[in-house]
Amino acid sequence: MVRRLICSVLKERGYTxxxxxxxxxxxxxxxxxxGPIHLLITDVVMPAMSGxxxxxxVKASRPGTKILYISGxxxxxxxxxxxxxxxxxFLEKPFTPDSLARKIREILGTG
Length: 111
Known about the structure:
Number of domains: 1
Number of strands: 3
Shape: globular
Oligomer: single chain
CATH topology: Rossmann fold
Number of helices: 5
Strand content: 5-15%
Structural class: alpha/beta
Strand order of the largest sheet: 1-2-3
CATH architecture: 3-Layer(aba) Sandwich
Helix content: 40-55%
């Protein structure tokens, strides 16, 4: 449900969106997609593959890709367990469409 909301919000704002149902599918999609991927939005905790593992896989072939982690856990709780790299971008759930859009503009340097 959150993934669909994010995709809808981004498409409404003119972004090209590649959607995957989980980390494994996202990793495969990133490998197969020929165009640039400017931003990966991933949950920190996912079944089968963590957001951090997905990030490592995507960054291996696309080092310029920026990462936005989202989670229902607080940034402090996640950082305490070392689940995010220092300086990683983070957005805590729940968030509004406007706060998501602001965070993406901040990350991409477009606003």
